[in-house]
Design brief:
The chain is α+β, with helices and mostly antiparallel strands. It is 17% helix and 38% strand.
Length: 412
């Protein structure tokens, strides 16, 4: 499992003004993230519904290229509720969303507080975006920030591409992957002579478990050489599996944090979403070097368990600030923590309660030390250093033997 260093909710619907009068913000989620200068920029998905309510009717919003957002009012008996996000029209069996999404720029100096929530908006524009634009993933290539996003329309859920240099103005590049295809992320550099993307084709025919695919492109706009990369391998990802944030380069390989969802206990509902990890070969990302066998992040907090959709942990953004230092110090902290936990357990009569108290105190330090609260990698270094010093002191004073037996002669 990955230990969370920060659990405060960054942004909620009440923190944003609706983009249009007489609409309500009902969800803020699935942000893309990028470091721009000395600040972190989030491109968040904002879901809105019309404020108006009509008894016996459900409002189905969509974007009109000339009029902007409009609402079609349909009698309740003509609709079948699927989940909190959508309904099915009984007449033709087609799905409609009960909200309309756009993307909004949020700026933060430290990634843990919001400095400016009044940034530029990226709203639907074309026919293939009439039901909204969703779930951006940002990749910096050279001096340009490219982001993929889901374009939802009566034609299905396609993935489109846009770019920006300043997150003030945007250029659209059109559809990359036709419906139904989502969770597209771009690698941040050419590999060989091609750009590489991960994507999730969605088949209406259940011939296979859900899969993540890999594609290559000479220019980011035209893709080919499609091939399956990874399918569902564990119970927590048997319903859906897809890329999370864009892969990041490490000395060991491309690290991809991906999401998966398990089959829902109730048919037609949404199963719990969690996150795992893939390590892909640097020269040939079609080759998986390692893969997590269990979920590394699961929905645990109040906002994970009771958000726009319940029990969802859906990673979409990642930033690197001194990534090598953070990666190293987290490994050191893990070793030191295990040493101290083993020593406490073996010298308190195998007291699980004592180990729990130790872990609680260690976790409390993560949210009380000012240095650790900072997103700077030095916060993690401070915490890791303290843990390792304590572990070394224990080992030096009492010897490594106390990590495997009872110093005080307890019998278990």
């Amino acid at each position: 499992m990955i230990r969370r260093l920060f659990e405060k909710r960054l942004l909620g619907p009440e923190d944003l003004r609706p983009a249009h009068d007489d609409w309500d913000v009902i969800g803020v989620f699935n942000p893309g993230a990028a470091v721009v200068g000395d600040e972190i920029v989030l491109l968040v998905r904002v879901a809105e519904q019309p404020h108006e309510r009509r008894k016996g009717y459900t409002g189905l919003p969509r974007w009109d290229s000339e009029l902007g957002p409009i609402v079609e009012w349909v009698k309740d008996e003509a609709l079948e509720a699927i989940d909190p996000r959508m309904v099915r029209c009984r007449e033709d069996g087609l799905l409609r969303l009960t909200f309309l999404s756009h993307l909004r720029v949020i700026r933060s100096g430290d990634g843990r507080t919001v400095d400016n929530a009044l940034g530029a908006r990226f709203e639907p524009l074309s026919l293939w975006e009439e039901f909204g634009v969703e779930d951006p993933r940002i990749t910096r290539i050279g001096d340009m920030f490219y982001f993929t996003y889901v374009a939802v329309s009566r034609h299905g859920a396609a993935t489109a591409l846009a770019s920006t240099k300043d997150f003030e103005t945007f250029q659209r590049h059109g559809i990359l992957f036709p419906p139904d295809n989502k969770d597209v992320v771009l690698f941040p550099e050419r590999i060989g002579d091609t750009y590489v993307a991960l994507h999730r084709p969605i088949s209406a025919a259940p011939f296979t478990q859900p899969e993540v695919w890999l594609a290559r492109s000479p220019d980011l706009l035209h893709s080919g050489q499609h091939a399956p990369l990874a399918g569902a391998a564990s119970a927590w990802e048997t319903d859906r599996i897809g890329a999370g944030p864009p892969p990041i380069r490490t000395p060991q390989g491309w690290l991809e944090i991906y999401h998966g969802s398990q089959n829902a206990a109730v048919p037609g509902k949404v199963g719990a979403y969690s996150a795992g990890a893939l390590l892909l070969d640097l020269e040939d990302p079609a080759r998986i070097i390692r893969r997590s066998t269990e979920a590394l992040l699961i929905p645990e907090t109040e906002y994970d368990r009771h958000g726009f959709v319940a029990d969802v942990l859906f990673p979409t953004g990642i930033v690197q600030r001194g990534d090598r230092v953070v990666l190293f110090s987290q490994v050191v902290a893990l070793v030191g923590t295990r040493v101290l936990a083993a020593w406490i357990f073996n010298n308190t009569g195998k007291s699980v309660f004592a180990v729990i108290l130790f872990h609680a105190a260690d976790n409390a330090a993560l949210v009380t030390l000012p240095e650790v609260q900072s997103i700077s990698p030095w916060g993690a270094v401070v915490h890791s250093g303290l843990v390792m010093v304590a572990a070394l002191v224990v080992t030096w004073l009492w010897g490594p033997g106390t990590l495997a037996r009872f110093r005080f002669g307890y019998e278990g």
